[in-house]
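User: Okay, second chain of the day. Same drill as before: sequence in, structure tokens out.
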Amino acid sequence: MTKAQKKAENKAKAKAKPPEAKARPAPKAQDPSEAFNLNVGDWASLKVSHGEFKGSHSVYVVSIEEAGCKIRHEKDGFEEVIKWKHARNLKGA
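Assistant: Same drill. Structure tokens below.
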């Protein structure tokens, strides 16, 4: 059997196979803010694992936004937005 014949045979087998169903990812939560039970005015603890600010910090939730939640650090008043994918580092107090 030549290479061309073998190739034609393999193509015919591939066409005869039914297409396989693709696995679908699990649906995401509708509103990530509900998953973390954070409200404006809540105190929380922010865990930082790397860098100069490594440790646990007390923070105040200033606002809930579509991209994440805006927090203010108790120690120095610094404000930042924590994206929902990183909000697992926030623990309600």
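Strands lie at 43-48, 55-64, 68-73, 79-83, 90-92.

User: Thanks, on to the next one.
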